[in-house]
Amino acid sequence: MTYILDELLRERMGLEYEVVTDKQDYLQSPLPGICYGVTRVREDNEIHVPAAGLVLENEVKKVMPEVSVFEKIPVLFPVHGNGDFPFDIFSAVFYMLSRYEEYLPFEEDEYGRFPAALSLAHRNDFLEVPVVDHWTLMLERKLITVCPGLSFREKEYHFLPTFDVDQVFAVKDKPVIRFLGSALKAGDFSARWKIRRGLEKDPFDTFGLIRSIHEPLGLKPFFFFHTGKWGKFDKSMFPEKESVRQVIRDCDTWGRVGLHPSYRSHDEPELLRWEKERLEKALGRTVTASRQHFIRLRFPETYRRLLAVGISDDYSMGFPELPGFRAGTSRPFRWFDLQRNETTGLTVYPFAVMDGVLKKKYGSKGDEILRFLGVLKQKVKNTGGWFVQLWHNHTLSDWDDWQGWKHIYEEWLGKAIYRK
After folding, report:
1. How would you classify the pairing of strands 67-70 and 73-76?
2. Positions of CATH 3.20.20.370 in the chain
3. HSE (CB half, 13 Å, CA atoms) of 292?
4. Is 3.20.20.370 the CATH number for 158-416?
5. Pairing mode of beta strands 333-337, 342-348
6. Which residue ranges of the chain lie beneath pLDDT 70?
7. What number of other Cβ atoms are within 10 A of residue 351's Cβ?
8. Strand locations in 38-172, DSSP E?
9. What is the per-residue pLDDT for 175?
10. What ranges make up the beta strands (E) of 43-88?
11. Which residues contact 148 (CB under 8 A, 6 or more apart)?
């Protein structure tokens, strides 16, 4: 219960609170109160939140919340009665932020992930709605009715562009065997040879372009660099190479840099520390932020491992196959370890959409992509949330099947930062 009260009242609203368990002490207090229970305690000066009780449980149980609608917003754990809300707002927020459903048995996808299609949000058509942020505003509006002079922390729209760097270069400085293999497979040996010889710029080297379109807007993109071993799903380059190291360090001067843990590290967790230290050596400083490659996120193992190696901020909270809000929120929040029943030191930054999802749905149809992003952004802006997007450096290469995406991105960037 403390976790949710801290998250809702202290972190999101900027309020201080005191938990009172003695009924007489509560009745005698002149302060406005929130009563969480089956029935009201006071006749006035109180908000009554009807209790479904999930937030008070100390162990994980097989729970499937009922979904209803209140003020045109989907809500969980509806409770009938005379409460000020027709649902248990505390249990609803807890269910979404803790990712409760992902602790229960489920059928993994081919990459060992929790499929978006199995989520309660997708099955009830509210994945693209930041419901937790709406519920927070509902609670604020109700608190004002018992304490009209109450002021809340300002909720200002934020836009954060992020880039996963699976490969710094497509051709340049690749080992000979890998260069020959990819060139023969693609059937464009001549074009790749020119790049390898330095006669043409490597298409994945879009970092200068990214800087030129973000800096004038006052934006500092976040780059997550892959430093793992080569494998079927891991195509990274050696950060020990001077050309790669220079890109990493340069990005850190005008942007921000974090780790992109490899696909393999999900199955071989001992690699995680090695990859982190490898990036830190190239960077020349400690790394505290990360995003999982392939968004291979498993609860609670992934986040426990990240904490164990010194990661304090993670940006993996989103679905790789569908846009929306995996935890029901666009705002950063502290991760709660459901099995250990404790709040941790890891801050989670959800992302709303990734380039691959847009490409699969719309191809290179710029108008449709921009229209969809605009609608999603508006949903975030309406609640004063964070619009975190996931792109890749190669997305802006205009190479291969990413033709036209550079222009789409530049046009979107101007719209994304606009707060009105």
Report:
1. antiparallel
2. 158-416
3. 29
4. yes
5. antiparallel
6. 173-199, 419-420
7. 25
8. 46-50, 67-70, 73-76, 158-165
9. 61
10. 46-50, 67-70, 73-76
11. none
